[in-house]
Model the fold of this input.
Amino acid sequence: MSTALGNHILVEFMNCDPHIMNDVAAIERDMVDAAKKAEATVINSTFHHFSPYGVSGVVVIQESHLAIHTWPEYGYAAVDVFTCGDMNAWIAFDYLKESFQAKSYSAIEMKRGSVNLLTRNDFDISTMRQKANEWVNPGFYTRNVWFTDKDENQALSLRFTGDVFYDHQSPFQRVRILESYKYGKMLALDDMVMTTEKDEFHYHEMISHPAMFMHPNPKNVLVIGGGDGGTIREVLRHPGVEKVTMVEIDGAVIEACKEHLPNIAASFDDPKLTLLVDDGIAFAQNAAPGTYDVILVDGSDPVGPAEGLFSVSFYTNCYNALKEDGILVAQGESPKFNEKAFRELNHTLQDIFGTDKAPVSLFFVPTYPTGMWSFQYGLKGNIEGPIHQKEAEIETFVSTHGLRYYNAALHNGSFALPNFVKELIKK
Ligand code: SPD
Done:
């Protein structure tokens, strides 16, 4: 007869593959499979990916639990397997050692709940409280894997199914298409949410239509970035547009979105589009002066390849590339999440276009940290903006195309700023 209630092994897996150590879905799968190999009955699992790296998770089994914390930067995983009954924890150990490609490892084994130290209570089970019966289990076995977009102090997490449709380290960034429960498939660049199936229209309608209606006759449009295709899809709805040039630095983003987000990447075959997989910053530098009616800068956040999209020289080049009367719109970050980038961008635009020529529009994106996001404008020449007087024209356009975010009232309303935002950009 066993002298303990349980058996606990505490394991150090070292020199593991760091990519596996940072792959929350793979780790969850391996931990669940390890439990099953050891003939445990899996009840539930919850796993979390930390930004920029690291995974923690627990698999609850009828026989106790398996838990893990990883440090990909050290190729290290701290694992514990707690079992009771006849389950052999070492079978799970062997399985995980192979799965994580651990080159070295150590383990200690402890008996838990020594019967020599415990006194058994005699009780009548029928008198025990039955609160648990009131709780409704949402499902027998649920996955709980989260994708987190964050800085040091704030985060936005989306629970995702664990399905990874695309995962490629391009020369510029890690490009992934993952599936979230609430917002459908999403494009993530490094550890940042770029767009999701369910709320992409907020962003893509608001980056394009206000400028397209502010301009009296936009014919030649330049899009820098925007590899998912949502921005060009919206611009190309405007019948007066004759030519759209899109310059996206990362071909992997286009490839991933064409294959997995076809409703966003819907307009790459439009004959009015010239698509260049190239550096948008160099493109703006070499652009012929006075070429474009509207320039839309659909970049990611100011880290990695998009950092240069927040520089004075880039926006000076864009100013020059605009016609005498032209509009620039830039992805403007959040006045709540990234105040510094938000303010600095606005000051740059004020310096280049003029103090009264750099309006800001705010809109909601539920899947970006804080949910409050902005587009920042540069109005060149005689563009009268940002407020329009085109109510009927806009409403016809909105209903023709079934737009779900933009409308005539919202256009004007989006430029009304809370006092703290006005304060933030005051020079
Ligand atoms: N934190 C997200 C910043 C926005 C990046 N651009 C999104 C691309 C959508 N076309």
In short: The two ends are 79 Å apart (CA to CA). The pocket of spermidine is lined by residues 192, 194-195, 203, 226, 228, 230-231, 298, 300-301, 331, 368 (CB under 6 Å). The first helix runs from residue 18 to 21. The longest strand covers residues 155-169.
